[in-house]
């Protein structure tokens, strides 16, 4: 049964193979889009430097609420397949054997929608630029790397087991993150510990990512058939480790540094 009833007809008929011709060039497209994104971001900041900040409270609430709802629906759709495999076949199989997940059209569709949503999430930066709020390296680095990584390996994203770990954890974390952003943008006073907890959960996501990738490496090196390619694993490991370091530094600078001093 579909989590989103009105999407049920689309989900049931979705065929990832039909999207392959378009996905074949998606990686190159993501690089071009990322270059344009960076140019617009820094040119936009320079343009806004001599102008008053825009009051975008209502659009920001709607933007974050839309991404929160999307992430929640995605998590509710993708996670049951992952949970079923974990219970029935164990962790190692959930990382390496996509066939055990079952080639579900809804699951493949929502994994593809997650990839496409990274285009939309680039719009987060527009609100930062137009509202003249602080923009740090972590923000734009995270956006373009997760976008280009997903796009580059998008041709196999619906057929490689480990990508469903990546998808489920990303949907889960973004469900919390964008819900928090929505409430905060609406003017509700949110306790400081909530933001701290979300960052800790993000760090846990990266640890899970590293563990799943290392498990896939071990499986492949021991001769066990694993459907993840080495280039996907190496790139994913580098990205997850960089995220962990950057987010850990952010957590320290934001919440711990003053206490230590």
TrEMBL record:
InterPro entries: ELO_CS (IPR030457), ELO_fam (IPR002076)
Catalytic activity: a very-long-chain acyl-CoA + malonyl-CoA + H(+) = a very-long-chain 3-oxoacyl-CoA + CO2 + CoA
Compartment list: Membrane
Biological processes annotated in GO: fatty acid elongation, monounsaturated fatty acid; fatty acid elongation, polyunsaturated fatty acid; fatty acid elongation, saturated fatty acid; sphingolipid biosynthetic process; very long-chain fatty acid biosynthetic process
Enzyme class at the top of the EC tree: transferase
Membrane topology: Multi-pass membrane protein
Signal peptide annotation: none
Keywords attached to this entry: Fatty acid biosynthesis, Fatty acid metabolism, Lipid biosynthesis, Lipid metabolism, Membrane, Transferase, Transmembrane, Transmembrane helix
UniProt keyword annotation of Membrane present: yes
GO molecular function, one term: fatty acid elongase activity
GO cellular component entries: endoplasmic reticulum membrane
A Pfam family hit: ELO
Record EC number: 2.3.1.199
Transmembrane segments: 20-40, 61-83, 162-181, 193-217, 232-252
Protein family (similarity comment): Belongs to the ELO family.
Name this protein carries in UniProt: Elongation of very long chain fatty acids protein
Species of origin: Geodia barretti (Barrett's horny sponge)
């Amino acid at each position: 049964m579909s989590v989103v009833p009105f999407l049920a007809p689309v989900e049931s008929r979705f065929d990832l193979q039909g999207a392959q011709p378009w996905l074949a060039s998606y990686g190159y497209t993501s690089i071009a889009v990322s270059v344009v994104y960076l140019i617009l971001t820094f040119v936009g900041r320079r343009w806004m430097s001599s102008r008053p900040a825009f009051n975008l409270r209502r659009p920001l609430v709607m933007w974050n609420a839309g991404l929160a709802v999307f992430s929640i629906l995605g998590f509710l759709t993708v996670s049951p397949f992952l949970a079923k495999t974990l219970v029935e076949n164990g962790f190692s199989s959930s990382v390496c054997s996509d066939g055990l997940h079952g080639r579900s059209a809804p699951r493949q569709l929502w994994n593809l929608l997650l990839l496409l949503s990274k285009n939309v999430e680039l719009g987060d930066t527009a609100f930062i630029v137009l509202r003249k709020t602080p923009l740090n390296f972590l923000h734009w680095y995270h956006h373009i790397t997760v976008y280009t990584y997903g796009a580059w390996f998008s041709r196999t994203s619906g057929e490689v087991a480990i990508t469903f770990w990546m998808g489920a954890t990303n949907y889960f974390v973004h469900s919390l993150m964008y819900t928090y952003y929505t409430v905060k943008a609406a003017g509700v006073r949110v306790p400081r510990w909530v933001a701290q907890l979300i960052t800790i959960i993000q760090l846990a996501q990266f640890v899970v990512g590293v563990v799943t990738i290392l498990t896939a490496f071990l499986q492949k090196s021991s001769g066990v058939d694993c459907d993840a390619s080495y280039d996907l694993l190496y790139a994913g490991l580098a990205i997850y480790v960089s995220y962990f370091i950057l987010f850990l530094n952010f957590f320290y600078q934001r919440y711990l540094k003053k206490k230590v001093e």
